[in-house]
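look at this stuff:

>
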Amino acid sequence: MPSGVVGELYTGGLGLARGFLNQPELTRQRFVVIDGEQYYRTGDRVHMDADGLLHFHGRLDDQVKIRGNLVETKEVTAALMAVPGVVDAYVRVIGASRTDRTLVAWVVAPNLTERAIRNALREALPGYMWPDHVVRLERLPLNSSGKVDWRTLPQPSQSDSQGGADLSPEQQRLAEIWSEVLGLSVEAIGPDDSFFDLGGNSLRLGVVLGRIGARLGVRLSFADAFTARTLDAMSDAIIATTSTAPPAIPTAAPDRPADLHPQQRSLYAIWRANPESVAYNIPFRLDIRGPLRWERLRAALSEVVAQHDALRMRFILDGDDVRQEPMGAVEPWFEYRDGASGEAVESFVRPFHPDEVPAPRALLVQLSPDRHALYLDVHHIVFDGVSLRLLVDELLDRYAGTFLPKPPVRYVDAAQWCHDRLASGAEQPDESYWLKQFTDVPPALALPTDHPRGSRRAVCGSVIRRELDAGWIGRVVAAARRHRTTEFASLLAAYVAVLGRLTGQRDITVGSPVSGRVHPDFDAVIGMFVSTVCLRIHLDAESTMADLSAQVDKCSREALSHQSYPFERLVKQVAGARDPARNPLFDAFFALQNIEFYEFRKHDLDVSVELLNPGTTRFDLNLQAYLRPDRLVLDLEYATELFERSSADYILDQYLAVLTELVDSPGSPVYRAAIGTSMTSCPDFDF
């Protein structure tokens, strides 16, 4: 790991043991081979400073992932011990799998009720760290060493649960949907619990809304759901709504070409105009630790392609229009190498030709007997971020021989349904909303650049990264909960503040992706659904960081509720004559990647996923924030034809400074004295 970044300590050398006696499974887990050398995984979390000294940060055993959030059990214990009246406390996770993990607190507090303990924790900790069960004891059992003997602790009962009591039939049905999406038991959900405090986010909320439509027959908007955050309030909103769920997706004949999804049209035009570009390739790498058979993995990828028609789609020019048609049988390109040079990996990402089926390409590189890197590349016209998670999950399941049902609809049918809805005028409310937001063309972002802007949009790019420890995730989550917003709103607000301070502008538009999966049947379909929304923020001289967060939150909630309207159609209605040197409507982009599959264990394989940059960019600046299990990762992609690396470094440093300001001092003004810059062409602003 880089200096200052926390990682797990491995030890090796001549003094290393051979393994655990008569425990081959434990030996396989803890003794690993890297580049031909054996190491022992200590489980200690450390970082190395510039002088080579190791600093201890506790044990991996003390960190667990609950409902998609990383929880330090010792931090929960410390919060309990800080409650007046608590004599002793111990916190542990019970349950083996991700879906049945629960956080349990055993507490010695003779004069406190369970409700008093819970109320105190609600003031001290974010919701995802609240124990699912609180078990009150007269004393904690200790072993001969004076440590808590956790094996003899009593198991929690139904009465120890934080929720599940006195739910109405409507609340019970909604709690069942929440439990499936959040990965916790129904008993752990109470009527006053907030969806976001329990680990929810906008992506998971979209899945919840889809299942509400499919099972309860009503359509609840994102805006209503964000307002009605608790189980009780959301249940009341469902009862009150008069909107019905969307109808089932009709199925077309297997051999009939279909219209493009509205989001595919602009991608196809860009692809056809510059077929040698890789700007819209989506390359990524799976780092796989564990025994792997490459022939079996190749067969699994072929099965995934056979299952999902988007991955074997051809595009047909029909006069002035373009249609798409799934091919019956397509074999993905797959190559296996026992070690590979950097040049070989770089050459793996190459253009997809518009006249050929853009089937996935795969390169599997064996790094050691138990370490492989699987490189995959797919064109954006048939693929998006949710598709990436679906593909990785299904690929590993099929490799393990797990039976998987077919998706409820084909992508070609989903695309036709979306096309027909737009053509019929069903998206008129969304159109009205966006035209109201953009009664005029937003001003171009006047970022100071190191090089003059050319006559064509900059497409060459690079990425710089910052990795922040898990404490940062807790700070951002806590700030969002204090202001009743989301992590997305907090992270984007800091970005808007930096852009505002760099440019002096108070009318700022930032692009951001939304899933576009507006029908519950789309959840398990691989294909291109993602849409871009333009978040337009208007600020004044007195705006504080808290004001900015609230406005960003409101704007993003409304955008999610109106995400069906295609970005390209909005551009045609608003932008008029385009500047070929700029992206239409916005120059800066932001995305929060919280799909939660970047590091996981499945079928005895440890897997991490890393998106790759092929040396291109689609925007002047593109900030991607990743909520990883143990850290907050920030990637700033920048146009190298406009910015030097030092300037991009500076912008990212300023972002971290402003994010600190937003989290710690939300009452501070957005616009203040100039922040200065290292950019060669940027004067000293005085706001």
